[in-house]
Amino acid sequence: MSASLEVKDLQAGYGAMQVLWGIDMQVQPGQTVLLLGANSAGKTTLLRTLIGLLACRGGSIVFDGERIDGLRPDQRIRRGIAFMSELGVFPTLSIDENIALGGYFLAPARVRQRREQLFELFPDLAKKRRDAASTLSGGQRKMLGIAKVLVAEPRLLLMDEPSSGLAPVFVKQVIDVLRTTITGGTSLLIAEQNVAFLALADRGYLLDHGKVRASGTRAELEASDAVRETYFGL
Ligand code: ATP
């Protein structure tokens, strides 16, 4: 069952450099929320702080009503949060092995069952299941990255730049796959530079130099001067 996320006044950074300067944001159960921002805006830093790979230096993160900012990444994963990094997969491992890793905290029988369900959704992957992920095309690797995080049926999925490195035709494929595979059971937070992902979003936030510059519904963001300035220099 999908779950909510509530972030208040979040601060994070690397060494002496502060990157996030008091982020407030929310994801309601079952919603898809887009985190837009140009290069270096702080999107990856925010996702890494939410999953616990980077320490939260101030503020709070509440998942499904529970404060989680003091928990280790594995404790957050066990509560139902999944993180898809920009790379998404382990290139030297096979497709089967990548999917098995995504289900690390599940019972082996459940992983096998979920894997077969996912292969029905991603037939191209099923055909190459014993091959290394490095043999896949860029678009297929993204599909594997998505399958790898979906195997655990996350309640909240954090996705970092699913469009990175992809030609426009594959970006459209990724958007279509996300539209059909993410069901109401998963809340989704996607960090992206590509405004095309607004098509999937219920709501969104525009991040700029580690601060939220604009937020609102998809329609509000599409009409937002801040988004236009950031993306089109108007
Ligand atoms: P991109 O699309 O380029 O990944 P982003 O919005 O995800 O952009 P971040 O990767 O979060 O941005 O980077 C925010 C700032 O933090 C940048 O100034 C970046 O140089 C810096 N930064 C990122 N990772 C590190 C790190 N491991 N050590 C030090 N500084 C870092």
Account of the protein in words:
With 234 residues, this protein is of the alpha/beta class. The chain is built from nine helices and ten strands. Strand 1 and strand 2 form a beta hairpin. The structure holds adenosine-5'-triphosphate (ATP).
SSE layout and pairings?
Elements: E1 5-14, E2 17-27, E3 32-36, H1 43-51, E4 58-63, E5 66-67, H2 73-78, E6 81-84, H3 95-102, H4 108-121, H5 123-127, H6 138-150, E7 156-160, H7 168-181, E8 187-192, E9 203-208, E10 211-217, H8 218-222, H9 225-232
Parallel strand pairs: 3-8, 3-9, 6-7, 7-8
Antiparallel strand pairs: 1-2, 1-4, 4-5, 9-10
Q: Would you count the extended β strands for me?
A: 10
The chain-level mean pLDDT equals 92
Number of helices: 9
Helix content: 25-40%
Strand content: 25-35%
> Stretches where pLDDT falls below 50 for ≥5 residues?
none
Q: List the ligand species.
A: adenosine-5'-triphosphate
Major beta sheet, strand line-up: 6-7-8-3-9-10
The end-to-end distance, rounded to whole angstroms, is 41 Å
Main attributes of the structure:
single chain, 234 residues, alpha/beta, six-stranded mixed sheet, four-stranded antiparallel sheet, 10 strands, 26% strand, globular, binds adenosine-5'-triphosphate
